[in-house]
Write a structure and sequence with these properties.
This protein is of the alpha/beta class.
Length: 331
């Protein structure tokens, strides 16, 4: 009886002590929209590097990817000279991890299976808050970073001439988390005389290339797409620009950014970043990215403010609750 009573009292003591221990360990002074396992004590809106050395990673194999705006296999091939260079520069094996969706890319970094990769502007906010991604570069050249516009495209022979002509039409958006493919249209179109999901039903295509191909085939009357994706498809001969008209274009947004996992060991991380910044694109990469020749340094807090503004204007947030709601039923 005495032994059982002692064990019961010990178990209760541990149970009551656990919340206090957890509370004592949580010394984070600021998180913002970051998930609970991250901290932003320096208020730069990204996850801080862990202070516990045991939580830092120096991977033997560095896993890299690029946002799935088009067929992932295309970018696996295009980035092959770069991943070979990165392997030599970091003295690590580098593999290109093909992802099929923005959610899959975010989950890969959150779970530690992805160390560095290119993200689309809209999903970048989720990657930062949910996966601990830290954006560090975009495509650019010596004069600055490369941007893109939100374009509304129609077939050349379409009767649609103005934004108000979209009313009642089949208009493709890409995905709920996409900046140019959904959030920017929701935020910007009402001032142009047309409100998505009121004046026309939003049809999600899944990706920019699918929206573009859908307009080309007549499946959609119009589509909101990123100009850089459209231009790359023209460059590769997938579509002909002569088959389309652009009825409206936005101001410039930052294009796909590159982000690393917040828990990379600092010395290794800094060496890897320098490898990125020193690299100059092959002719094939230059062609794929409209003449850009390098990874141009950025600051997430400053350079992505317009993307976050569009999201807020569209009533979007990028916390865990919003992420889970958006991906409910997709698994």
């Amino acid at each position: 009886m005495t032994n059982r009573l002692t064990k019961t009292l010990l178990a209760l003591a541990v149970a009551f002590a656990m919340p206090a221990v957890s509370f004592a360990q949580d010394t984070c002074s600021n998180r913002g929209d970051l998930d609970e396992q991250y901290c932003d004590d320096n208020h730069d809106l990204t996850a801080d590097t862990p202070t516990d050395p045991k939580k830092l990673k120096t991977p033997n194999t560095l896993v890299f990817t690029f946002t799935p705006v088009e067929d992932p296999a295309v970018y696996d091939k295009i980035f092959k000279p770069f991943t070979d260079y990165l392997s030599q520069c970091t003295a690590k094996k580098v593999v290109f991890f093909q992802v099929q969706s923005n959610a899959a890319e975010i989950e890969a970094m959150r779970s530690g299976r992805l160390h560095v990769g290119g993200f689309s502007p809209g999903p970048t906010n989720f990657a930062v808050n949910i996966a601990g991604a830290v954006p560090f570069a975009v495509i650019g050249d010596a004069n600055g970073y490369q941007g893109y516009t939100l374009n509304v495209i129609v077939r050349k022979d379409s009767a649609i001439q103005t934004m108000e002509d979209l009313k009642g039409k089949k208009v493709a958006h890409t995905a709920p988390s996409s900046n140019s493919g959904h959030m920017a249209p929701v935020a910007l179109f009402p001032a142009l005389g047309v409100t998505p999901d009121k004046d026309y039903k939003v049809l999600f295509s899944g990706k920019h290339d699918q929206s573009i191909l859908g307009v080309n085939s007549g499946d959609y009357d119009a589509a909101a797409v990123a100009s850089d994706v459209f231009d790359r498809m023209v460059e590769r001969g997938v579509i002909s620009a002569d088959n389309f008209r652009v009825i409206w274009s936005s101001e410039k947004f930052p294009t796909q950014d590159f982000a690393y996992a917040h828990d990379l060991e600092p010395n290794f991380r800094d060496k890897m970043l320098q490898c990125f910044y020193d690299y100059r694109f092959t002719d094939e990469l230059k062609k794929a990215f409209a003449g850009a020749d390098r990874f141009y340094p950025i600051n997430y807090k400053k350079d992505f403010e317009m993307v976050r503004f569009v999201a807020r204007s569209a009533g979007e947030s990028f916390n865990r609750a919003a992420y889970d709601k958006q991906n409910a039923g997709k698994k």
